[in-house]
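Fold these two proteins, one after the other.
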Amino acid sequence: MELYFTLKVVWWLLLGVLLIGLAVMVGMDMGVGTLLRFVGRTDTERRIALNIVGPHWDGNQVWFVLGGGAIFAAWPLVYATAFSGFYIVMALLLWSMIVRPLGFEYRSKMPSERWRNTWDWSLFISGFVPMLVFGAAVGNLLQGVPFHFDWRLVSYYTGSFIALFNPFAILCGLLSVAMSLYMGGARLMSGSAGVVGVRARQAALVAGVLAIVLFTLGGIWASQLLGYQLTQGPEPGAVQTPLHQTVIQVPGALLANFHAHPILWLVPGLAYVGLVLGLFSLSARRAVLGWWLGALAWIGIIGTAGTAMFPFLMPSSTEPSHSLTVWNSGATVLTQSWMLIFVAIFMPLIIWYTSWAFWIMRGKVDAHHPESSERS
C-alpha cells in the first residue's frame, strides 16, 4: 500500500512536469506562430522568425506526445473520461496541430504572396487556438466537468461544447495565450538582432503584463468558486474506483490546501517572481534570462492549479462523488512502476538532446539565412 501511495504521488508530480514541459516548449513555438504577422512586416522578416524556431519546433512536439502517452499509461481513467467528454475540443486541437507543421513545411515552397499569406494565417490560428484550448481545459478542471459513471465505470458527459468556453475558462485560456506570446517573444528576441527582435520584445513585454493581470484576476475568481472536498473514501494507497468515495462541493475549497499549508503560497509566488523579473530582464534586453524566468512563471502557474486541486485530477460537477482523484484513477502498481523506469531513462535523454540542439544552433538569425535558401 505504501508503494502504491508513493507511485501515485510521484506520477502526479510527473504529470505536472510534463504539462510544464508542454507549456514551455510547445507554447513557445505556438507563441512565435501567433506573433508571426506582428513581428514580420515583410516576407523576409517572417522567414527570419520561422528560421529561429525552425530547427526546434518539431523536436519540441515530443512533449505533447510524451504528455498524452503518460496520461494514457499512468492515469487511464482520466485519459478515457477526458477524451470522451472533450471529444469535439480534442478534435479541434488535433486539426490545429495538423495544420501547424503544414504551415512550417509548405509556406516557402511557392513564391506566391497569396500562398505564403495563407500559411502565415494558418500558423497564427494553429498557435493561438491550441494555447487557448490548453488554458480553457485547466479552467474547466478547476470548476469541475459535467460527467458521471454508471456501475460499470462507463463515463457519460452531460455538458456541451459551448459550455466548455465559459467566462472563467476563457480567462484561463487567455492567460495561456499571453504566456505563450511572452515565451515566443523572448525566443525571437534572443534569436534576432534586427527589427524582428525589437518588435518581439515589445510584444513580450505587453504579454507579460497581461499575464500578471490575468493570473491575479483568475486567482481572485477561483477563490470564489465552488471547490471539491473529499470527505470519505478508502485509504489513499488502496486500490479503489470513483464509486468508493464521498465528495462534496464547498465554496472556496480551491484555497483549502494553501490555508492548511501556508508554505504552498510560494507556488503562485513563483509565477509573480518569474513574470516581474522576466519583464525587467526583457526591458534590459537580456532575452535568454527573460525566457528562463518565463519558464519559472509557467512552473508557478501550472503548479498553482495543481496544488489548488490536489488530490483531484478531474472533479465531476454533475456527481461530485464520481470525481477522479490521484487515489482512484491511476494504473496498477506494475504499470506505474515500469512507466517510472522508462521515464527515468528517457526524460533525461529528451532534456539532454533538446539542450544540445539549442546549444549547437545558438546565435542570431539575420536576412542572410532565409535569403540563402528558397525553402526556408
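Now the second one:
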Amino acid sequence: MTEGVYQVRGFDVSNMTVVEGPDGLVIVDPLISEECADAALAL
C-alpha cells in the first residue's frame, strides 16, 4: 500500500485495511467475526 496504510489478507473472506492517522487508527472492513479481527490486529 503506502506509508501508514496497511492491509491484512487471508484471515477471513474479506480484507481488513488499517489507516494510521494523527489521532489513532481507522479500520475499514473489520472482518466478519471478532476472533478474526483480533487475530488480524495482533499482527
